[in-house]
Amino acid sequence: MKRFRPLRADRGYDAALLRGIARGDQAALAAFYDRHAGWLHARLARRCADAETVREVLQDTFVTVWRSAGSYRSGEAGGWLWVIAARRLVDAQRAQARAERVVHEPPAAVPSAEDSALGGLEYGDVGTALDRLSPELREVLRATVIDGLTTREAAQLLGIPEGTVKTRAMRARRELRAVLGQLGNAATTPWGGLA
Fold first, then answer.
1. Which residue ranges does the record assign to the RNA polymerase sigma-70 region domain (predicted)?
2. Of 40, 47, 57, 152, which is least packed with CB atoms within 10 Å of its CB?
3. 119 and 179 inside one domain
């Protein structure tokens, strides 16, 4: 773990390493790990106080890189890597919360607000409204709202300027509100108050 921030100057080098990883080159994975593990560990540690969880998420992230390096297409490798790590961290935290609920709480009859919101994304009016948005607006909402990425992270992931992310997010929220209003459910949706 040599560095604590992504290296931007060598996109080509990262892309070459990822191509090597996709071919099963363990040395490429080791080099990629050395380039990115430090900053990724520091960033995960800022979002999670449990050092063991951070280590497990870091390991899971690089296992995922090993398995899915062939899916990397282009853009900032650090952004792609952070999306993987952020999703692994959310999964780990949800698993921990579920385990604690099983031990400490009786089963709840009412789903949590988060489960209701996520269920609404896939099956409810919000999911229907999201499907009606243009792909570029939907991608920005998914990156910033669902994945919880910052504007800068979303810009890196999507390969667009930060200002474009902000503009599309604002337009996407406006269009989402309008579609939900047409569906007659804007007041009862978990996202009815989007600003």
1. 32-98
2. 152
3. yes
